[in-house]
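Example 9 (inverse folding). The structure is encoded as follows.
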């Protein structure tokens, strides 16, 4: 890929050079100028494409998996979201994985741990729970729960509950790209619950208050579970005092209460409210995002394509893709849950953001 630009590789093939390239191949080497323009794009070039996964399409096939495989045999009964540009690594977008997991009342999957960090966002059903390192958490609709890197975790649905479906989000493509993934099955197959149910949310999830003696040194949020009611309440309260972001409406991020930072080392998450009739401005930034509509309905224009979403639909925004969101309802707010790889992007100094119509030249580094 030659480019007629000073500073870029622009070498024409000659019989002598072609023979030279062949020679280099014999020693497992190559000439940088034959690939330089391709491996150093002027701007990020995502191979992921914007996709909308409609719950109306997915729900039936997800439920059908219950009669086809057991959680015992499958390990986890999950249908994963497969971005057409990322099929080789089972990613929904960029280096992020997403899937829909279904469990019937009385089912429980065995406890395991892996180097990948994971989250769940509850879509439907009652009686679901997750146990993380002995902390049992009850899960209701729109609750957000963490299973961080290295923690023992298992999920189940109480016999008294109903069929549950939740979204799993993981950094598994990233951890595999780093060639750093380990997996272990718990030696006893199931964990003993060692604490009061929901203790971590009750201890760490109290607006602005933390236990005076509370100490936390692990590199993920001790809160583990973020419930929907206080999340929606926080957005509603904040909406009363802010115009919101021109690009994201009323947007709040889930934080580690001990640090104010992202909930996990590799995955961040947030919830945003688009007020009735709100339409945001377009921008683009580095980092990959997966959204789930938690409430209401609306539309997003991503890379020039319009996607109409409603409750439980999932869509992705690839890195550096232009995007804007809208709520077409005149009376109801719409809420979007999202998770992303921003802790990695920011931590490595790779965050860039640009507003559409920003004529300031190179992208703003935030
Ligand atoms: C995992 O551990 C779960 O714990 C779900 O339920 C989906 C996808 C890839 C790798 C690990 C779970 C997963 C996963």
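The amino acid assigned to each position is listed next.
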């Amino acid at each position: 890929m030659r480019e007629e630009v000073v500073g870029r590789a622009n070498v024409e093939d000659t019989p002598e050079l072609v023979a030279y390239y062949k020679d280099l191949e014999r020693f497992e080497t190559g000439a940088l100028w034959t690939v330089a323009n391709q491996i150093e794009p002027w701007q990020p070039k995502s191979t992921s494409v914007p996709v909308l996964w409609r719950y109306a399409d997915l729900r039936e096939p997800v439920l059908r998996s219950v009669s086809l495989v057991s959680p015992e045999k499958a390990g986890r009964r999950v249908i994963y979201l497969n971005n057409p540009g990322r099929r080789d690594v089972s990613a929904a977008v960029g280096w992020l994985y997403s899937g829909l997991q279904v469990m019937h009342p009385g089912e429980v999957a065995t406890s395991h741990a892996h180097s990948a960090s994971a989250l769940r966002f509850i879509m439907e059903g009652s009686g679901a729970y997750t146990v993380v390192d002995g902390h049992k958490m009850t899960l209701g609709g729109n609750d957000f729960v963490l299973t961080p890197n290295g923690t023992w975790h298992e999920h189940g649905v109480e016999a008294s509950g109903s069929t549950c479906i939740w979204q799993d989000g993981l950094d598994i493509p990233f951890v595999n790209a780093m060639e750093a993934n380990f997996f272990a099955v718990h030696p006893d197959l199931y964990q003993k619950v060692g604490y009061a149910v929901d203790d971590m949310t009750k201890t760490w999830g109290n607006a602005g208050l933390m236990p005076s003696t509370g100490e936390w040194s692990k590199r993920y949020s001790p809160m583990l579970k973020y419930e929907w009611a206080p999340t929606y309440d926080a957005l509603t309260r904040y909406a009363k005092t802010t115009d919101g972001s021109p690009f994201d409406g009323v947007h709040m991020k889930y934080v580690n209460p001990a640090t104010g930072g992202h909930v996990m080392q590799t995955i961040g998450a947030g919830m945003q409210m688009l007020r009735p009739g709100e339409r945001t401005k377009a921008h683009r930034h580095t980092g990959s995002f997966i959204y789930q509509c938690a409430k209401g309905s609306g539309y997003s224009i991503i890379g020039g394509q319009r996607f109409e979403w409603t409750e439980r639909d999932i869509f992705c925004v690839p890195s550096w893709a232009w995007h804007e969101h809208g709520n077409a309802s005149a009376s109801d707010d719409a809420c979007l849950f999202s998770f992303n790889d921003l802790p990695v992007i920011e931590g490595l100094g790779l965050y860039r953001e640009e507003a559409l119509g920003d004529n300031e030249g190179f992208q703003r580094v935030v």
